[in-house]
Amino acid sequence: MQFIACLVLLFGIVNARKLPSYIKVCHRDDPKVGECVVKNVEAMMPKFSEGIPEMSIPSLNPLMIPAASLNSGGNFKADFTNLKVYGADKFKVKSIDLNLKDKLHLALDLHFDTMRIVTDYKIDGNILVLKLNGHGVMDANLTDISAHASTDAKQYEKNGKTHLGFINSDVNGLVIKKAHFQLDNIFGDNEQLNVQTNQVLNDSAEELIKELAPVITSVTRDIVFGIAEKTLQRYTFDELFPQ
Ligand SMILES: *[C@@H]1O[C@H](CO)[C@@H](O)[C@H](O)[C@H]1NC(C)=O
Ligand SMILES: *[C@@H]1O[C@H](CO)[C@@H](O)[C@H](O)[C@H]1NC(C)=O
């Protein structure tokens, strides 16, 4: 038992030390450390779809998110479960500001050409001019998505080694140029009402985007910080960003 625990521990440590060959080491004092990280993300990108097991990164196409919910505080509530996000594996880092010298801060501008979210939904309340109460499958195609992500980081010790962890992670400034939503079964068997409702949803896509922005923001946060956090947990600060 102890022997196995030892082996696991040893293997874990040995494993943790090897950066894949397509990752270039970025130096924390390099004034262009941000650009260096972007190059690594670009090198990893073709692999995001399948996932990168050697870096503990799951498949991003689809990316599976167990649950997300929306509570406007007022008269509208929505729960989404089994979210499948397609297209999250393809994004562009439009700008990066990474400081690893004193304040450990990262800010990113991101762009996704398209993202598709297919999810079970349960919705109750007033949205737009509609009074909705139902559940089914929602399909959403989003086009031209921009977001700003930022985070601070702090150092912590794991197995006697220094790692970086995120604090105060935030995604904001979400802009979606175009969206098409389809909510199946919103009025159960009443097919005519379902069609009419989806027509209204489509005609008011802009307002619907605003209503759903918190969920899409949270999905984006899972994509960005989910990937990065796995890497930070796996490798030490010195391995990723030597001095
Ligand atoms: C989203 O796009 C996919 C693939 O292009 C398409 O099959 C699906 O019907 C679209 N869904 C909506 C709600 O527009
Ligand atoms: C949805 O609305 C757009 C315009 O905003 C329109 O071009 C498109 O045909 C509509 N689609 C459906 C399925 O109603």
From TrEMBL:
Swiss-Prot/TrEMBL GO biological process terms: circadian rhythm
Per the UniProt entry, the signal peptide is: 1-16
Question: What Gene Ontology cellular component terms go with this record?
Answer: extracellular space
Q: Which UniProt keywords apply?
A: Biological rhythms, Signal
InterPro entries named among the record's database cross-references: Haemolymph_juvenile_hormone-bd, To_sf
**Family listed:** Belongs to the TO family.
Q: What is this protein called?
A: Uncharacterized protein
